[in-house]
Sequence to fold (250 residues):
Amino acid sequence: MPDPQPLLNRTAVVTGASRGLGRSIAVALARAGARVACVGRDVEKLDETARLCGPAAILAPADVSLEADVARLAAHVAEHLGPAHILVNNAGVNLRKPVTEFTLEEWRWVLDSNLTSAFLCARAFIPQMIQNGWGRILNLTSIMSHVSLPGRAAYSSSKAGLLGLTRALALELAPHHITVNGISPGPFATEMNAALMNDPQANAAFLARLPLGEWGRPDDIGALAVYLCSDQARFITGTDIVIDGGWLAQ
Ligand SMILES: NC(=O)c1ccc[n+]([C@@H]2O[C@H](COP(=O)([O-])OP(=O)(O)OC[C@H]3O[C@@H](n4cnc5c(N)ncnc54)[C@H](OP(=O)(O)O)[C@@H]3O)[C@@H](O)[C@H]2O)c1
Fold:
């Protein structure tokens, strides 16, 4: 019989837990027994996630692109849930337009939200994992870490960078029994893709390119996250697991 609560007594931090994939991952980790810190900026939505997670979850409002917020977050988690074992760097944004139309501020916003945030959170929580003698870091990379599309210069750059960070951290942290892996989703039905899904032409074009012919559902991702955070995945590090309806197989 598989263990129904493989993450019992683990403390997990999930960024971008207020909706979408982050919410699904937070709930899946909580069901697997973890105490979950739900991180994001929209406190009302974080509260909904925390309620779905159950009594062991806490709200941890923070903008993970800001150094001071992340320092406060790490102290808040250690104080209320104990030192973190698991960090899921899921917070992210997308801005789709031709590169010549990007302002420097917009470029930095995407890079700071998707890549610098993961660096800041890793730097803040790694000491807690070393203290625990065990750790798991999951980075929500993307099929856009591997391939790209027009209009994705900033997003693809940030996600390819995140894959590089994943590999570098895996090597650096292996001696501490901390594994670091990416999860690369393909197109999932979340708010990030609402504009595409609500545009009949863009929606049809995406579905035509997707071998499985439908958008991923946020609930498709939780079990994979739980597995990668479990002891069973102890020998998996420095890699990237693609969950994309077949997009990258073409
Ligand atoms: N959906 C897809 O098709 C897809 C495909 C590949 C990769 N991904 C990646 O998967 C992750 C989740 O995507 P999603 O589709 O669930 O997106 P989403 O529905 O737009 O949710 C994004 C989450 O990130 C949080 N966030 C953004 N900037 C933040 C910041 N500076 N500080 C704290 N939280 C921040 C948002 O929370 P607040 O607004 O409350 O701060 C929200 O909870 C992202 O990294 C995305 O790039 C998604």
